[in-house]
Each structure stands twice: as C-alpha cells, then as structure tokens.
Amino acid sequence: MSRSEAPGGAGHTRRWQIIAIAAAVSFVSFFDLSVINVMLPSIERALGAGSGAVQWIVSGYSLMFALALVPAGRLGDAKGRRHALLLGLALFIAASTAAGTADSGTALVVARLAQGAAAGVLVPQLTALVEELFHPDQRGRPFGLLGATASVATATGPVIGGLIIALGGAEHGWRLVFLSNVPIGVVAAVLVWRQFPAKPLSGPKDHRPDLVGTLLLGTGILLVILPALQREQWNGLLPWLLVPVGIGVLVAFRSWETSTARRHPPVFDFRLLTHRTYRLGLLLGFFYYAGFTSLPLIFSLHLQYGLHRNPLHTGLTIAPFAVGSALGALLGGRHVRRLGRRLIAIGLLTVMVSLALMTALTSFTGTTFSIVNAFPLLLAGVGSGLVITPNNTLTLAQVPKPDAGSAAGMYRTMRQVGSAIGLAAITATLLGAVAANGGHWSTALRYALVVEFGIVTAALLTNLADIIGSRRHPSAPAR
Fold this sequence. Notes:
Layout: H1 12-34, H2 40-47, H3 51-79, H4 81-100, H5 105-133, H6 140-179, H7 181-195, H8 211-229, H9 242-260, H10 276-292, H11 294-306, H12 311-339, H13 341-360, H14 366-372, H15 374-395, H16 404-436, H17 441-472
Helix pairs in contact: 1-5, 1-6, 1-7, 2-6, 3-4, 3-5, 3-8, 3-16, 4-5, 4-6, 4-7, 5-16, 6-12, 6-15, 8-9, 8-16, 10-15, 10-16, 10-17, 11-12, 11-17, 12-13, 12-15, 13-15, 13-17, 16-17
C-alpha cells in the first residue's frame, strides 16, 4: 500500500503497525509530563532556579499542551496525521535538545513550554487515528493499548528518570533525561514518515485555518489557568479577576465558532456537544484529571523534600502505580464494550478506596512509608486505567470521522485544563499546609489527598449522571 492510500482500508496487520508506532509516540509525550517530578531538586541545585521558575517548569508543559491540542487536532484533520506528527516530533526534538543544554531556569522554562506545545500537537493525532482506522465496536483494544502506554509512561517516568539521574549524577543526570528524547524522536519520525499515509483519511475539504477561533480559545484558556500558575508570584485577589475575563473570552469563542461553522470548518464544532456522552465525557475528564494527575507529584515532593529520599527511591516507590495503570488500561479496553460507563464507576470507586488508604498511611516515614503504600498505589493505578481508557472510548464513540481530530483535541484540552488547575490547587494545598504546620509533611500530604478525594468524587457523580441519562435516553448509533 502506498503512503497516499487510506489505511482505513488496510488489513489488520497494517492498522496495528500504525497503532504500535502511535503508542511509541504517546509514550514519549507522556513520559516528559511525569519525569520532571523527580528532577526538580537536581534542577534547582544545578541552575539555581527559583520557586517561580520551578512552578513553570512543571506546569508550563501542561499549559502549552492544553493550548495546542484543539488547533493541532484540526490541523491533522485537514492536512493528515503524518504531516501533524512530523511537525510535532520536529518541535519535540528541538525542545528536548534545548532543555538538555539549558544554562538557566528561564531557558529551561522556555524549552519546557516548547516541549508541551509539541506534545499537544502529537497527542490528538493518536486518538484520532483510532477513530479513523477502527469501527466504533473495535476501538476498545487500540484505545486500551494507547491508554496503557500513556499510563505506563506517566507512572514509569519517575522510575526511569531516577535511574538516569543515579547513573549520570545529580549535576548532569537530569540533562541526560531530556537529551534521551532526541534519538527516540528521530526514530519515531522515520517510522511515521515510512508507515503513515501522506493524505488525510477523511476530513473537511475546506482547509482554511480558523485563526480567530484559535486565538480566542488559546487566550481564554490562558486567562483561566494563569492565576493558578502564578499564585505564588501574584499576591491578592486582583489576579483572579482574569478568570471571569477568560470565561468571557471562551463565551466569545463559542459565538465565533457557531457563526464560523456556516462558512468553513471551525477549530471546534460545538454541535458535537449535542451528544450527551461526549459532553459528560469532557466534564468527567476535566474532574478526573484535576484530581488524579497530581498524585505522583505530591508523592514525589513528600518523598524528596519531606522524607529526604533520592530520585531513584522516589521513582521505585511510585513504580506500583505504573504496573497498576498498565493493567487497568488493558482491562478497561477489553471490557468497555460490555460494561460501558459502569466500568468507569468501578474504576473511580477503586481510586477513591486507594486514596482513603493512602490518607490513613501518611504518618509512616522512611522506607516503611514506601512499603505500606505499594498496594494503595497499585490499586490507584488499576482504578485509573479503568477510568481513562473506557472514557476515551465512550466519549468519542459518536464523533463523526471528519471531526475526529478536533473532538479528540477538545477532549484532551479539557483534561489538560483540569490537570493544570488540579496541580495548582493540590500542590498549593500541600505546600501551604507544610508552611502552616511547621514543616510537618505527613499532615500536609493528608490534606492534599483529601482534596484529591473530593475532586474524584465529582468525577464519579458526573459518571453516574451519564449512566442515568443513558437509561432514560439511549444514545444514537455511533457514526
């Protein structure tokens, strides 16, 4: 089959070859989202980075990830997945090189912002590929593979990062972590060039970019998130007035997109929100990522700053979460068609049980803390896999193929916005409690876990609303 042919008509083997390459790209994207958690003490010492720079090194990646997702998804719809993936990989390679050679905190922040933007270009293409290559009834397994890969990357990032820092030393080991992305990115780019189709499989015939819509969306998201990211640098309540301004910009974005849809394809077609499952899936993703993604970070901060463990010990402590995440994602992909949203409810309840166990175990110290939390972290990983992969599959099940990239981009955007807000809120809870309790990290960790529990509860209530709604008003057949 030539590169220009649509793989939607390709055989089983060719489709899975493409998904395997997509999984490798997914691993790289999510690895860099989590590996930073064990690198912070080394970066602070090596570059003399202040608290503001450290905040942006962590959260800037998520912010740019969120800003890039929707326009990048539409780019892939219009120009093809190969075009968008090669662009994203080129930017990712350049940004990783800049991060690995940064000589100041500011330079590293800029490199991390570029890395996040590159990941935001890559990730919606991967979800859209499943939409384009597989019938709705067949998407559980490929989404399970991509979900397992992302979960493993997120959870093993601290382990691999800790090993590399141990081998390379605290001074330069963190640089090797960033630079290791370069050869992996080059190999991935070659595989994408050779295996992926050059032309879009399906998509809008009108390829004019919606520049106004893209600007409004990006500005609105930035204004909503920025006060949370800058909470330590911007004192008082005045900066928080940016949040309602940002919401107003997002309202203007919706009005613009609604009018634009009559003339040419918008960045995001709001008619997709008429699907209840898609609409509630976005909300569930927002809440779950707001509560879930901070878990590895607050454990890393507690272990390294509170218990004075090294990066390798920190990574190994979080390793059970990686095992559970992979197992849960594969199980979720296998059983989502049979159990539907009930499977997500099981996953959310599992996560809540694990958080309750962790909260009860916060008083332990030293190596004992790592040992007693192994099972709760494993349980949390399994539960997360049972939430993330099935929600991917069910949320996007009714999306028309021409809108696959845009819909996947908005879905991921809601997740990343939730992640950025959750990271800011929960780390603020953790560090604020440390300051208020005379440096007692165990008490602070308990408070942070309670906040996580509350946010995950909101995700459970959203899922229950979808289950009840589906019984009253069955969804239309997937297209």
